[in-house]
Design brief:
220 residues, 6-stranded parallel sheet, 6 strands, 11% strand, binds 1,6-di-O-phosphono-beta-D-glucopyranose, binds magnesium ion
């Protein structure tokens, strides 16, 4: 097995949109809520929710609302959306971990790199269980551990600390522009996957496919 000979000692992966495609379930959850409230919502608005916390996402969804909502009403709506979202997550199985992700993650781990999750989601551990990655990552930094959402770097700085590495030793992998900005703000290099993350000029690498990480890390 080729050992990691690249510049990094650790990799910090965003979850939603990078490891698995829970982004479509977020869309369905927000869409159901928005329809119930009579608020216009579409895929374009949904893109702005990538990497953003649940309450900050709700504020974006409600930009199109015709009435003002109280804090208690907002909390109820965020909870309702999370219920809809978790119903969909509950149907996920290890088959929802794409084969290229699984194969690449295993090779990265075997190369000796330390691997962590850096996700804004409070459902990260549940998602990892559903897709069969429970216990796979060395460390998990998620929405339950932070008070500031991306583009603040807190979630990645927490992950680096858990890995006992400096930001300069870690590469962040992101699908969200807010995530690429968070990485840069924390002193991390980043690998951008997909159009939203790649629209940021702050991304160090642009990935055509997830397995490009092997080359960046000097494994192939
Ligand atoms: P939850 P990531 C983020 O996950 C999602 O991209 C974002 O759309 C969501 O609002 C946020 O998690 C919070 O998720 O409601 O499950 O706590 O991309 O940072 O892995
Ligand atoms: Mg994401």
């Amino acid at each position: 097995m080729r050992k990691n000979s690249g510049a990094f000692s650790g990799l910090i992966f965003d979850l939603d949109g990078v490891i698995c495609f829970t982004d479509r379930y977020h869309y369905q959850g927000w869409k159901r809520l928005a329809d119930e409230e009579g608020v216009y919502f579409d895929e374009t608005i949904n893109h702005r929710l990538r990497g953003v916390s649940r309450m900050a996402s709700l504020e974006i969804v409600l930009e199109r609302a015709e009435k003002a909502y109280s804090q208690a009403e907002k909390e109820e709506m965020a909870e309702r959306k999370n219920r809809y979202y978790r119903e969909l997550l509950g149907e996920m199985t290890p088959a929802d971990l794409p084969a290229d992700r699984k194969e690449t993650l295993i090779r990265l781990k075997e190369s000796g790199l330390k691997l962590a999750i850096g996700s804004s989601s409070k459902n990260a551990k549940f998602i990892l269980e559903r897709i069969g990655l429970d216990g796979f990552f060395d460390e998990i930094s998620d929405g339950t551990m932070i008070s500031r959402s991306k583009p603040d770097p807190e979630v990645f700085l927490t992950a680096a600390k858990l890995l006992q590495l400096e930001p300069a030793q870690c590469l962040v992998i992101e699908d969200a522009k807010a995530g690429v900005e968070a990485a840069a703000a924390g002193g991390f290099q980043s690998a951008a996957l997909g159009p939203d993350a790649q629209s940021s000029s702050l991304a160090t690498f642009k990935l055509e496919s997830f397995s490009d990480l092997l080359q960046i890390c000097g494994i192939v």
